[in-house]
Each structure stands twice: as C-alpha cells, then as structure tokens.
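So, does this match?
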Amino acid sequence: MSDSVLLDPVDLEILRLLQNDARTTYRDLAAAVGIAPSTCLDRVARLRRTGVITGDRLRVDPVRLGRPLEALLSVQVRPHRRELIGPFVERIRALPESRALFHLAGPDDYLVHVAVAGTADLQRLVIDEFTARPEVARVETRLIFQQWDCGPLLPPAPAQ
C-alpha cells in the first residue's frame, strides 16, 4: 500500500490515546507514551503533516439537539451518472438532518445516516427530500436503536 506511513510503537500509542481523547494535552500524552513533550509535539505534527491525523472532531448528542430518532437510509439513484450524483450528493450533505453519507458498491448507491425529531419528521424527510427527487429510484429506511463507537483505528498487524 503506497499511501501507508511507517509508524513505530510510540506513534501507534499516540494515535490510540488521541482517538480515545483528542483533547489530551501534549504533556499528558508525552508522559503516557514515555517521551518528552517537545518530542510528542513533533510526532503529532508529523502525523498531521503526513495525513495520518486529518483533523479533530466535535461530537454532539442528537437527543440534546431535539433529534432523538436516527435512521439509515439506503438510496438507489437511477441513472447512476456523474451529472446526477454530484448535485444529489451536495443536496444531501446540505440537509440539516444528514449526519454521514456513504457512496456504496452493491444494490444501493448511498447510505445516509440521519437524525430527526420523530417519525413524522423522518417521513417528511424521506418523501420531500429523497423520493421527490427524480434521480432517486428507491429509499429503504432502517431505524437505529443504539450505536457504539469502535476503535481505535490502527494499521493492520504485520504478517508473520
């Protein structure tokens, strides 16, 4: 894999710790991995520069924002052509209900994670924002009962 970056055990531990708490101070991070704070700062800067760390995220609780119902919408777009999918993607990304959008291989073209106020809002979203679009051939809705974070994401273990 040509885009992979060679990471040593200290880099991997830094990534693991930052993925668990991105607000960890460099001083605490350095102490946890056993290096000087300046070295830790340099290593994190290199991880950012090489594209291993691509940003920091703020997570919000959709329930606290009045959007307690989450769903995954499987969407089929027909015909599946660039001149249609570009505007479709931009429209879906602009919806305040959209949390994530995935372009897929297989029978469905897109998977959209949405958060809404309730079932009436979900129905309105599906009908007015998805099935009303001429390029949308089908939408299948799956409610999310519970969600867990996984990880941290680390490179595959070397083959033995």
User: Anything to note?
Assistant: Residues 95 and 129 are 9 Å apart (CA to CA). The first strand starts at residue 69 and ends at 77.
